[in-house]
Design a protein that fits this description.
This protein has 276 residues and is of the alpha/beta class. The protein is built from 10 helices and 9 strands. The protein binds ligand C2E and calcium ion (CA) (3 copies).
Length: 276
């Protein structure tokens, strides 16, 4: 027993060491990633459930590093948040996504909205509202086509945060609550924050046709959203059965592999904008 305990202990520390080492590597490589132009934005279409047409796209960051290969955002975003690197990189994301969409507006006759993920750490920055305004002005873009995706974690910062959200709304920007249903917060923020839409977290949507509880949850979220005059986007729509159920219960928009994976610029243009 003693022997096993010792081995478990060693296993545990070596796992911790590996985890620590990995994080150090990520941090080190992230420091130069922006200057080395290692980041890229992918775009995933958001589809109007009624018309089956694309109405918007979400920008999703990708990181290609020579040493580490492709690291998933779920792994490196938290490191960027902990180290504060999310501030300059978040600025780059806003500028790039807005400039890209502005170009697409000029190249097509169907203007789509751009939905951009924003970390709570960015929102906490005193210059955030001004940064967004600058990015929009620099691209001569129309703010009404900008959607910022925020998460329930903003609930921890209550009052000052609400003012900022109103300042963004005043500029004509839309706000969407991402990963809805997964946070710790209560439903009370839904009418406290100036939201335009909710994104139902993909954990409820993926495979929901085999799961009556998830179906009930999705149906209830849509009913609540309707009552509060919020649009609903279901993410993680992978199958036609899920799409059919969403259409039946009045979900407004859908996003997921059923339509498309997130795509790099060239592929997105060819497949969703029909331009080269
Ligand atoms: P998220 O904002 O909830 O983004 C949706 C994630 O679901 C994306 O993962 C997307 O590729 C994936 N997805 C889309 N459709 C499907 C589907 O049908 N099935 C499944 N299984 N997955 C689907 P991704 O790109 O790996 O991003 C992970 C997370 O990293 C994002 O979750 C978001 O929290 C964060 N993230 C990504 N890009 C950015 C960014 O530019 N800024 C910030 N702050 N966070 C970002
Ligand atoms: Ca998102
Ligand atoms: Ca999400
Ligand atoms: Ca997420």
């Amino acid at each position: 027993v003693k022997e096993r305990g010792k081995n478990n202990y060693q296993l545990f520390t070596s796992e911790m060491q590996q985890h620590f080492y990995r994080k150090m590597m990520l941090e080190k490589q992230l420091r130069t990633a922006l200057d080395n132009e290692e980041f890229e934005l992918y775009y995933q279409p958001i589809i109007d459930v009624k018309t089956n047409e694309i109405i918007a796209m979400e920008s999703l960051i990708r990181w290609n590093n020579e040493v580490l290969g492709q690291v998933t955002p779920d792994e490196f975003i938290s490191v960027m948040e902990e180290t504060g690197m999310i501030i300059p990189i978040g600025k780059w994301i806003l500028t790039t996504a807005i400039a890209q969409t502005a170009r697409w507006h000029n190249e097509t006759n169907k203007p789509l909205k751009i939905s951009i993920n924003v970390s709570v750490k960015q929102l906490l920055e005193s210059t955030f509202v001004e940064n967004v305004k600058q990015a929009i002005e620099n691209a001569s873009f129309d703010a009404s086509y900008v959607v910022l995706e925020i998460t329930e974690s903003i609930a921890m910062y209550a009052e000052s945060m609400i003012e900022k959200l109103y300042a963004l709304k005043k500029q004509g920007i839309s706000l969407s609550m991402d990963d809805f249903g997964t946070g710790y917060s209560s439903l009370s923020y839904l009418n406290k924050y100036p939201l335009d839409s909710l994104k139902i977290d993909k954990s409820f949507v993926i495979g929901m046709n085999q799961d009556d509880e998830n179906k009930a949850l999705v149906k209830t979220i849509i009913a609540i959203a309707k009552q509060l005059d919020l649009k609903v986007i279901a993410e993680g729509v992978e199958g036609a059965e899920e799409y059919e159920f969403l259409a039946e219960i009045g979900c407004d928009y859908a996003q997921g592999y059923l339509y498309s994976r997130p795509l790099p610029v060239a592929a997105f243009k060819a497949q969703w904008l029909s331009i080269n």
